[in-house]
Amino acid sequence: MTDLTTEILPANSAGFESAAAIWQQGGLVAFPTETVYGLGADARNDLAVAKVFEAKGRPHFNPLIVHVQSVLSAQRYVQWSDAADRLAAAFWPGPLTLVLPIKPNSGLSPLVTAELPTLAVRVPAHPIAKSLLERFDGPIAAPSANPSGKISPTDAMHVTAGLGGKIDAIVDGGACDVGLESTIVGLADAPALLRPGGMPREALEAALGEALNLHNSQDPLTAPGQMTSHYAPGARVRLNAEAAQRGELLLGFGPVDCDLNLSHAGDLREAAANLFHHLHALDAQNAAGIAVSPIPENGLGLAINDRLRRAAAPRD
Ligand code: TXA
Ligand code: MG
Hints:
Elements: E1 7-9, H1 13-24, E2 29-32, E3 37-42, H2 46-56, E4 65-67, H3 71-74, H4 82-91, E5 96-101, H5 110-113, E6 118-122, H6 127-136, E7 140-141, H7 156-163, E8 169-171, E9 183-186, E10 192-195, H8 201-208, E11 213-214, E12 236-238, E13 248-252, E14 260-261, H9 268-283, E15 289-292, H10 301-312
Helix pairs in contact: 1-6
The protein binds threonylcarbamoyladenylate (TXA) and magnesium ion (MG).
Magnesium ion binds near residues 143, 144 and 152.
């Protein structure tokens, strides 16, 4: 898997045609979604899905999200519910993933779910992702297009840097708007927040009409992918910093003097969109450490702080 030439495909109908043909042949294509770039493969093809795990160096017990075009296509693979209806009506297409019981005979590769009885599904809103799904006309398994444990990619260059030579192609659609992965809500039991993300918890609870259970991050099977160290830059990360110490670069938030600012105006949406981009950029400067200003814990701040805590966590 190390000798592929990774083709950069344009975001036009010729590019979409090539991407769909690669998927049909069991290959891997990275593509933009509104959250982050995904590394896509035909979710029904065991070999293609196995290649996703191999290219990312991802542990096989960590299941993938399946991307589909519509609620109707999602219903082919999962047992639907009233709660799913409420959330999908309010937020699909968009940065929300629903975990529901998988239907028997779904036709999906068992590698996708890591043999869990549930499946994570999402309808992305990005126009390029939508065109690709329409052209391919089938389910696409797509984790974020980064090596496992590293910072997620929010532009095509990040994907090339992390996975170039290991995947067939990348559809270049520029920078991702949201900049954080989708929020994951578990609906197989009482509604639970399995991963904070690009759709704020407050909005989900309002549409659902009830509070979400907060997941127990100690349980890697109900909340897999929640291994503590994740999104890790090469540099050490220090949180809630008022100023940089020697050898550190400061990633600011609000009106502070810093090396890069997530949002000078203190806007959480802007900060989310800049988070991974700025971490990639600061990491490229090979500093000993990255210090980060405090970020409020409301709205998108919940997901931003989740990613920052993982970036700062002790590594194996
Ligand atoms: O925004 C996103 O969600 C992006 C774009 C590409 O769609 N994808 C993404 O995929 O972030 P990934 O693989 O990096 O993260 C998916 C998360 C993992 O933490 C995985 O453990 C969890 O979803 N997951 C997948 N299937 C699950 C399931 N059946 N139950 C619980 N969690 C699941
Ligand atoms: Mg990921």
